[in-house]
């Protein structure tokens, strides 16, 4: 059974940092590209960041570029999102998702249950 | 960057009826890289359709996707109670550095 489990969310003040993790099992993590997608309360889905299976290719949404860093550890079947200089508008549920294959031209087949990040003073 | 506009914003129908959801792109979507997701309250999105018309694993055949170029449609042939949810279209595989775009969603509610 494919499982993606996010953790690391919480309540922080503007300007602070947070590191999200996504532990995976049940599929060939090291062969699949991964993404982070977020959803602000009551809003739609927003793609945040992409990482290829080998970490050789990384993309970010303009809204987080320069502040967020995506990474992965294929030995631990885990995905990460380091979030620095957090802003109120970063408040959202953050989902990790995987594509079946490695490439940015693939849909998001599997999703975790999400972890809530709240940024507020 | 391609923008996706979904319509209607809210669709009110009864179980057993046919639902037609629209997704329009601001530019032609290359190679039909268009997906549809279903999201129920408190749950993660679920992939329904990819490549504009291919059903994902385990998706009932009452869900179908169609379209090309800039106009795409998700059709639910006969609504079941569990189908009432929010539906998002997504363009994937766009030219980097922004490969992915989501539409704003259509809420399918019980009439």
Could you please describe the fold and organization of this structure?
The complex is a heterodimer of chains A (121) and B (111). Chain A is mainly beta and 121 residues long. Chain A has strands spanning 3-7, 10-12, 18-25, 34-39, 45-51, 58-60, 68-73, 78-83, 92-98, 110-111, 115-119. Chain B has strands spanning 4-7, 10-13, 19-25, 34-39, 46-50, 54-55, 63-68, 71-76, 86-91, 101-102, 106-110. In chain B, the strands form two sheets. In chain B, strands 2, 4, 5, 6, 9, 10 and 11 form a seven-stranded mixed sheet that branches. In chain B, strands 1-3-8-7 form a four-stranded antiparallel sheet, with no helix packed on it. In chain B, β5 and β6 form a beta hairpin. Chain B is globular. The A-B interface holds A 35, 37, 44-47, 50, 59-62, 95, 104-109, 111-114 and B 31, 33, 35, 37, 39, 43-47, 50, 56, 88, 90, 92-93, 96-105.
* Mean residue pLDDT of chain B: 95
> Rounded to an integer, what's the Rg of chain A over CA atoms?
13 Å
Globular, elongated, flat, extended or rod-shaped: what is the shape of chain A?
globular
Q: What class would the helix/strand composition of chain A place it in?
A: mainly beta
Task: Sketch the major β-sheet of chain A.
Answer: 7 strands, mixed
Mean pLDDT of chain A: 97
Work out the radius of gyration of chain B.
Answer: 13 Å
Point out poorly predicted stretches of chain A: none
**Number of DSSP helical runs of chain B:** 0
Q: What's the SSE pattern of chain A?
A: EEEEEEEEEEE
